[in-house]
Specification:
Number of domains: 2
Radius of gyration: 25 Å
Largest sheet: 2 strands, antiparallel
Structural class: mainly alpha
Helix content: 55-70%
Strand content: under 5%
Shape: elongated
Oligomer: single chain
């Protein structure tokens, strides 16, 4: 989510813009597309305040590339491990399948009452 206070602050701080752009350019795990590379190089040389849109884009680039090791004081690795060992992925898939089946059954019940119900006329035409 965009933090407008941060965008406003950095747009008025040329040193902060240069520092952030240089840090993003040095990230070893990112291969920047040419357009973004040019933008970051321009920002790394910027000596005047930048526009709000430029600041927003710079912050977005930062947010896209940040790696997080903690979320709310919990280790990301441990959270992934807990989710995997608890079978959460299986539970989510089963829940999604149950919801889809329930939705289809509900629609079938509605349509069995006649094609005047919402969405049933197309179902009747396609099945007949």
């Amino acid at each position: 989510m965009t933090d407008w206070k941060e965008i406003n602050r950095i747009s008025k701080d040329p040193q902060g813009v240069r520092s952030l752009a240089k840090r993003l350019l040095k990230l070893p795990y990112i291969t920047w597309p040419e357009e973004r590379m040019r933008f970051l190089k321009d920002m790394a040389r910027e000596s005047d305040p930048i526009t709000t849109r430029q600041a927003e884009y710079l912050i977005d680039l930062r947010d896209e590339t940040e790696l997080h090791s903690k979320v709310a004081e919990f280790s990301v690795a441990s959270l992934i491990g807990i989710a995997g060992s608890a079978g959460m992925a299986t539970d989510i898939a089963a829940s999604a399948k149950k919801t889809a089946n329930s939705s289809r059954a509900s629609r079938a019940r509605r349509c069995s009452r006649g094609p005047s119900y919402a969405g049933c006329s197309r179902a009747a035409e396609s099945s007949g």
